[in-house]
Design goal:
Length: 297
């Protein structure tokens, strides 16, 4: 495999180590322990796995973890009242409502209700707007993780052509903003893009955030390009036994890794950075709420 593997485990460990240092320093200098409140509505199994992973990461870095589990039939009013309570609680540095929420609750209403200073998911329109305006913002965790991995492969991204496939508020748009900030020439592709292959072949940096297994073909990749695969797709894996599944990305890894210069695997890539960057955002939120400068990049 000629491409360098961009190992999420190594990158995530680095981020978490810096956060742990920052948490310890904040405790020593100001007696503040950052706290992350995670709200889970309902019993979606995947969401439960994510919430557990977040709790474990908090423990690892010294952040206090607060969990609120609400039943599946919780009304929007009840959830927004809880968000208001957490907004007003000076002990809570960051608030994360695990999405998706049940259908009776508007996801956007929840996003809008979270205090932008505690919005560790970076989804509040104020944070999205600040990022787009080149101001300090809470940056969504997965895009920031992808960005740190890119910067780890190549410190100076200036002038490179970047293609971001996917334009969600959660991933595609913030990734594109971060790459613009790095002076890349950014193209955003989506389901209406014509000749995606040609767009991809021209890209020095290819970020795939589509949600379609193995969608980006090996021969779409420009030789030597940096490929960041954000996709997480569960597909059947009959080779592992009946009813078994496995995770794959949006990029055909086996083929693309023969052509790219560097590539993230799935699993073991960007996914591991998401939780690490959530810890980073919680630490930053605690600093900003205390009127202190950001302690980490
Ligand atoms: P999303 O909101 O569903 O957005 C998908 C994007 O892909 C849309 O902009 C869509 O275009 C575009 N798209 C769909 N089909 C396409 C096609 N045939 N050609 C080009 N573009 C196409 O998904 P998301 O939340 O951004 O997530 C994307 C992937 O990242 C998913 O696999 C998700 O599981 C994964 N993810 C991973 C993490 C992590 O921790 N690593 C975190 C979040 C998400 P339109 O806008 O035109 O519909």
């Amino acid at each position: 495999m000629p491409a360098t593997l961009i190992d999420g485990k190594t990158y995530a460990a680095r981020v978490k180590a810096k956060v742990a240092e920052g948490v310890a320093a904040l405790g020593a200098s100001r007696s503040i322990t950052p706290a992350l409140a995670v709200v889970l509505v309902g019993a979606d199994p995947a969401s439960q796995v994510y919430v557990r992973a977040k709790g474990r990461a908090c423990e690892e870095v010294g952040i206090r973890s607060i969990e609120h589990r609400l039943p599946d039939d919780t009304s929007q009013e009840t959830l927004l009242a809880l968000v208001e309570t957490l907004n007003a609680d000076p002990q809570v540095s960051g608030i994360l409502v695990q999405f998706p929420v049940p259908a009776q609750i508007s996801q956007q209403a929840v996003i809008d209700a979270i205090d932008p200073l505690k919005d560790v998911d970076g989804l509040h329109p104020l944070n999205a707007g600040r990022l787009a305006s080149g101001l300090d913002a809470m940056v969504p965790c997965t895009p920031y993780g992808a960005y740190l991995m890119l910067k780890g492969v190549r410190e100076d991204l200036s002038g490179l052509k970047a293609l971001v496939i996917g334009r969600s508020n959660l991933v595609g748009k913030p990734v594109a903003q971060l790459l613009l900030r790095e002076n890349c020439t950014v193209t955003m592709a989506h389901s209406r893009t014509r000749d995606l292959r040609a767009e991809a072949r021209a890209a020095d940096i290819l970020v795939a955030a589509i949600g379609k297994p193995n969608f980006v073909q090996g021969d779409w990749v420009k030789p030597g390009a940096i490929v960041i695969d954000v996709g997480i797709n569960r597909i059947p894996a009959p080779e592992k036994g009946e009813g078994k599944t496995r995770l794959v990305g949006d990029v055909d890894f086996a083929a693309a890794s023969q052509i790219a210069g560097a590539i993230t695997p799935v699993p073991g890539g960007v996914g591991l950075m998401t939780v690490a960057c959530l810890m980073r955002n919680t630490l930053i939120a605690a600093h900003r709420q205390a009127g202190l400068a950001d302690p980490v990049e």
